[in-house]
What does this fold into?
Amino acid sequence: MLPSRRDAQRMRILIIEDEPDLLRSLAMALRDEGYAVDTATNGEDGAFNAESINYDAILLDVMLPKLDGWGVLERLRKTKKTPVLMLTARDTSRDRVRGLDTGADDYLVKPFDLAELLARLRALIRRSSGQATTRIQIGEVILDTATRTVTRNNTPVELTAREYTLLEYLMIHRGEVVTRTALYEHLFDEDDSTLSNLLDVHVSNLRKKLGHDFITTRRGHGYCIEG
Ligand code: CA
It folds into this structure.
């Protein structure tokens, strides 16, 4: 269940991001969704806001002037458990591990998809408010975004990291046709040009593991998991 527009209106989000264009578009998108939005353009101001106000969630850039995202997070975690979604430019395991140690709740790697950011933000808020579940169930398949595990008929399904990422993306966007371009951008680095067939391979492997009809191909458009 997604929060209704009215629920979202009561929620207050802090965005700490120094890139003016990104900050503006994020703030606009969140306000469109009905969130109340505060912004900060450096780590010091952001940490001050985060400590003084009880936000429902914080979007926190890693590379920030004055105090970086890790510093903000470290300071915040001394007093508050506000859910934090880190926006990181680098998708390296070192960054992820560091984030976990410091107490980040989730990550998105730039450039990210706005729909995904909104979905993760909702999930983060649901989780922290205790109504939550990190599980997405479609038919007999259950995916847990917290543990990054998948079961089918209560039996664990072994997936590669790419297969998991692809499946999670399609399940978050259940009921929508996801274009191949969107999947490429989500799965692969921009400079990976040799991967045009890999997407089909991953989809084919997922079908073998989850049932052929679980992912539908919409010719000329993309892929879809019916919700
Ligand atoms: Ca930045």
About this structure: Residues 18-19, 61, 63-64 surround calcium ion (CB under 6 Å). The chain has two domains: 12-128, 135-224. The two ends are 12 Å apart (CA to CA). Residues 217 and 223 are 5 Å apart (CA to CA).
